[in-house]
Amino acid sequence: MAAASSFSSSISQWNVFLSFRRKDTRNFTSHLYAALDREGIKTLKDDEKQEKGELTSKALKKEINESRFSVIIFSRNYAGSRWCLEELALIMERWEKHDQKVFPVFLSGVHPLDVKHHKGSFEEPFGEHEKRFGREMVERWRSALRAASQLYGWSFKEFG
Fold first, then answer.
1. 18 conformational bin, left if phi > 0, alpha if psi -120 to 50, beta if neither
2. CB atoms within 10 A of CB 115
3. Of 48, 54, 63, 87, which residue is the catalytic one?
4. Which residues are CB-neighbours of 140 under 8 A, at least 6 positions away?
5. Alpha carbons 39 and 109: distance in angstroms, whole number
6. In angstroms, rounded to a whole number, what is the distance separating the alpha carbons of residues 6 and 3?
7. pLDDT, tens digit (0-9, with 9 covering 90-100), for 114-136
8. Per the confidence metrics, is the pTM higher than 0.85?
9. How far is CA 59 from CA 97, 126, 131, in A?
10. Domains of the chain from N-terminus onward
11. What distance in Å separates the CA atoms of residue 63 and residue 45, rounded to the nearest whole number?
12. 87 part of the active site
């Protein structure tokens, strides 16, 4: 318990950004958000006020850039969301350039190797994404998935 307490007190001064697919992770994310809030940790998550046609809002980019930590909650349908993939790309760019701490969470049905190698539910949406957003954008998202899947994280079988 002391380790958790010292961890939370050391990060309470920084923001934590949560990236997740809303409809897939509602229970898990709400519990995580509440737990971080109880510890006094300012936790940010994407809002639903995106402008039509925008991949990310300026406010969302600002939240990611101001966060010291990001938690990426990978669910089965995460890769089906262009919003999630764009958030992930921004997070991983921040990780690479500014040493933001990133912690992946793999929910039930998601294996890190599936994320890394774009298999199963992490393969299916990319054909449609490529048609809509182009090869360059899709490769940026694939690269972010590969990088995030190789970070130390947690697997939760009971959620998702």
1. beta
2. 24
3. 87
4. 89
5. 29
6. 5
7. 999 999 999 999 999 999 999 99
8. no
9. 20, 27, 27
10. 15-48+55-156 (3.40.50.10140)
11. 8
12. yes
